[in-house]
Amino acid sequence: MFCLRGVRYKNILQIDELEIEAGQITCILGESGSGKTTLLKLLNHLVSCDQGTVHYKGQDVKVLDAVALRRKVVMLPQTPLLFPGTIKKNLLIGLLFSKKEPLADAALLQLLEEVGLKKGLDEDAGTLSGGEKQRLALSRIMLMDPEAILLDEPTSALDDDTGDKIMEYVSRYVKSKGKTLVMVTHNKIIAKNFGEVIVTISGGNVKQIEKEGAIK
Amino acid sequence: MSEIVEIGPWRLLSAYFFLLLLLSFIKGQSIGKEKEILVSALRMTVQLILMGYVLVYIFAQNCLSVTLLVFFIMVFFAIRNIFGRVKVPVKKRLRRVIMLSMVAGTSLTIFYFLLLVIHIEPWYEPRYFIPIAGMIIGNSMTGVSLGTERLIGEMKTKKELIEGALMLGATPKDAVLEIIKDTFTSAIMPTINSMVGMGIIFLPGMMTGQILSGVSPMIAIEYQIAIMLGIVGSVSITVFILTRLGYLTFFNRFSQLEE
């Protein structure tokens, strides 16, 4: 689905070749400062590489419309991003941005229940805790029904238990709907438990690619 | 209506008594700003005397090219003033937008105002054109300065929010819509507020001047209302162009935030 060749980005990344397959959960494992976030941003063309190419489904991202690409390849930043307003507004804003039809309240409530967020739609999103914000931000992305999801350290703000629950939920969603998930983490256990492919990067280079049938 | 009393050089000198008063206060409290005050007063005096001679000359010419030249000089200095007044660095692309907004916004308003509202013959009659252009350009300059500073500041502090919106598939315009609205409001508010106090808290300079020179207060307020609306128009157009084109300078052709 994604293919990087000869990619150089400032002094942060040097990737000679990396292929990320569709329909799989790929974990990018590495220390902080190893260029993981930049790698994700290359995939949704939020940054452009200085040299080399990034292809999405066989097409160079530089010839694709960046906004249209980001509607198919949606990224969740490390710090969950909330917009001022209610939970409902925050859930629907991804659909609004990507010019898709909003969903009915019942569907939104059901989704909140599935991610274990027991809140009303009209509550102020600003009062949520870090973990709740992350779940809200994740739900928002799943509503958008993207082809691929990019997660940047999705569990860093959560305790282990909640982190595991959320990851189980996300991986179930991804597998049942045939989505592609690329997740950046520094947590080896999370990578081992949920990654079907684990790409270890260090100092901006791909060090190792492991494939395993870790799911279930 | 009686003609205006001419002050004359000697009685004008006596007005500098107020400056001496200020200087004595400053000295008495050892504030130590004497030099600045003297330089400011001197600059005011010299600049105004020069302007007086320039205006006498221009009024005598009454010619289109001289009037337009004065217009462009005024806009040029207003733009320079904006660049100087905004305390954060302004990128080249945004500078171009500022120039465009000032030239387009003020000239559109001035031409509309002179041709339609005042309806003078010839439309470039400098006695009308220059003071009106001065008020319109000056107020637009304030609006654009405020707007530019606000826009740059907001784009910086809300960077994560903008990037987050882009990650959710927002177009650059949708990602910064709130910032555009906010910038527009904060830039036009001083103009709106000055309308509220007008006539009660203060008598505007132009109206005061006209009344002093013997014009009936009713005509003076006619002009004042018209010019205030002209200022509203010009500030709106300049700030609208600034915000609508200005935000684009923060993005590149891949809809990425520029460094």
Q: How would you portray this structure in words?
A:
The complex is a heterodimer of chains A (216) and B (259). Chain A is globular, with a radius of gyration of 17 Å. Chain A is built from seven helices and ten strands. The mean pLDDT of chain A is 87. Chain A has 216 residues and is α/β, with parallel strands linked by helices. In chain A, helix 6 (160-177) links the parallel strand 7 (148-152) and strand 8 (180-185). In chain A, the strands form two sheets. A six-stranded mixed sheet of chain A has the order 6-7-8-3-9-10, with helices on both faces. In chain A, strands 2-1-4-5 form a four-stranded antiparallel sheet, covered by helices on one side. Chain B has 259 residues and is mostly helical. In chain B, 78% of the residues lie in helices and 0% in strands. Chain B contains eleven helices and no strands. In chain B, helix 4 packs parallel to helix 6 and helix 6 (126-157) packs parallel to helix 11. In chain B, 29% of the residues are buried. The mean pLDDT of chain B is 92.
Topology overview:
The complex is a heterodimer of chains A (216) and B (259).
Chain A: E1 2-9, E2 13-20, E3 25-29, H1 36-43, E4 51-56, E5 59-60, H2 66-72, E6 73-76, H3 87-97, H4 105-114, H5 130-143, E7 148-152, H6 160-177, E8 180-185, H7 188-194, E9 197-202, E10 205-211
Helix pairs in contact in A: 3-5, 5-6
Chain B: H1 8-15, H2 17-28, H3 34-61, H4 64-85, H5 92-118, H6 126-157, H7 159-167, H8 172-175, H9 177-197, H10 205-212, H11 217-246
Helix pairs in contact in B: 4-5, 4-6, 5-6, 5-11, 6-9, 6-11, 9-11, 10-11
Q: What attributes characterize this protein structure?
A:
heterodimer; A: 216 residues; alpha/beta; Rossmann fold; 6-stranded mixed beta sheet; 4-stranded antiparallel beta sheet; 35% helix; globular; B: 259 residues; mainly alpha
What is the distance, rounded to the nearest whole angstrom, between the alpha carbons of the first and last residues of chain A?
A: 23 Å
CATH superfamily of chain A: P-loop containing nucleotide triphosphate hydrolases
As for the CATH topology of chain A, it is Rossmann fold
Mean pLDDT of chain A, as a whole number?
A: 87
Largest sheet of chain B: none
In the predicted model, the low-confidence regions of chain B spanning at least 5 consecutive residues are none
Secondary structure class of chain B reads mainly alpha
Indicate the multimeric state. heterodimer
How are strands sequenced across the largest beta sheet of chain A? 6-7-8-3-9-10
Count, helices of chain B:
11
* Count of DSSP strands of chain A: 10
